[in-house]
Amino acid sequence: MFVAYKVGLHADEVIFTHAPSLPQVSAIKNTAPQFATADYFASRFNISSALHNAVKLAVEEPLYVTVPFFFMSAIKISPTVATKQLESAVQFQVYTRVI
């Protein structure tokens, strides 16, 4: 079984390209927002492990399948999130220079 889907870095921006009603998609959708955007780049292994465990818990018992691995491909930040982070970083830099 192979399902391709994309997960955004913000809870409102989870985008799926295939089969949005599958249990592994819900598991990822519920787990992904627990991490900050920076963690997706700094702690990629930890996030991949957490998502893998969530998918395993969601599908192994009800579907009687084994999930031997989980691959997290390219991570793309949506323009909305990127703009907010850039504005926040600029504001912090200006604030620290003022003080």
What is the count of helical runs? 4
β-sheet strand percentage: under 5%
Low-confidence stretches at least 5 residues in length (pLDDT < 50)? Answer: 1-20
Tell me, rounded to a whole number, the average pLDDT: 76
Helix content: 40-55%
How does this model look, in words?
The protein has 99 residues and is an all-alpha fold. The protein is 54% helix and 0% strand. The chain is built from four helices and no strands. The longest helix has 20 residues. The protein is elongated and about 60 Å long. It starts with 22 loop residues before the first helix and ends with a helix. 10% of the residues are buried.
Topology:
Blueprint: H1 23-31, H2 39-42, H3 44-63, H4 79-98
Helix pairs in contact: 1-3
List keywords for this structure.
mainly alpha, 99 residues
